[in-house]
Amino acid sequence: MAFPTERMRRVRGNAMLRDLVRETSLDAGDLVYPMFVVPGRSVSRPVGSMPGVCQLSVDRAVEEAKEVRDLGIPGIILFGIPPDKDAVGSGAYDPAGIIPQAVRAIREQVSGLLVITDVCLCEYTDHGHCGVLRGEEVDNDRTLELLAREAVAHARAGAHVVAPSDMMDGRVGAIRRALDAEGFESLPILAYAAKYASGFYGPFREAAESTPQFGDRRGYQMDPGNGDEALREVALDLEEGADIVMVKPALPYLDVVRRVKDRFPGVPLAAYNVSGEYAMLQAAIERGWIDGERVTIEILTSIRRAGADFILTYSAKEAARILARRGGRSA
Ligand code: PBG
Known about the structure:
The protein has helices spanning 9-12, 15-21, 58-70, 90-93, 98-109, 140-157, 171-181, 202-208, 228-240, 254-263, 275-286, 292-306, 316-325; strands at residues 31-38, 44-46, 54-57, 75-80, 114-119, 133-134, 137-138, 161-164, 190-195, 244-248, 269-273, 310-313. By secondary structure, it is an alpha/beta fold.
């Protein structure tokens, strides 16, 4: 069958029919909002390269968490900036550290919101790398124990999910064993499984004050040229006990999102629409070069279409507002 019998435009020509046959859905319930928590009270410090995003003290983070929940967004992921940094990232696994404080406050004061914590050392080390150093190299195996302690500290404070983002080998297994040993065998791990060494993390490093003081993260994060390797990373994390896997960044790696979904169809898959992707979008919106509402929804829809079950995105609040105005419809 071909033209003139077949006419693709028949279905497209009617907006209601277009909505009815749309393959990919997007709603606020597919989104997770990242937040940056800093010491102090009543602090709300805008992040220059991420318009609309602020570093927040715990009291302000509680307020924003309520706002997020009231927009119908099911979860947040928390990043912490400690009062002091040192070579071994002590603030990361301090049971009274910034993230345990924030988790406790949010769990106490905000119901009906999933609290995920990012598990990594880079925000807590004075050198800005994701683990402890031996010379100028990150020492993989010594870092594992510290990441495990960090995950347990988050779990004890009440985190619903822990999300290791460091890319050390063996960290999912080390965290799983430590959680199990402490009675948290039911606590899920969301593994940043395929995390690329990306220039798109620049604005995040301003927000999290985690820019490496020397070198870069290519020794532990993935080479942007590799796709097959992402499948290996995902397989390894699943073997070690990951419950949900993630591809990061999202837009430059939509092919990877799709390949992971196809290869591991029953595994929940997240994608992280990272800071640089958000900054590019906001810059173009500010200049009036693109239609912000339209492109925000188009981007998130494309990440869902590629195969992500849910998306970590700084656009979550804006997207939820747009979708609510449209009666929940994603087009
Ligand atoms: C910590 C971490 C990073 C991001 C999430 N967790 C930064 C990095 O690896 O340098 C980036 C998130 C974003 O850019 O929005 N390791």
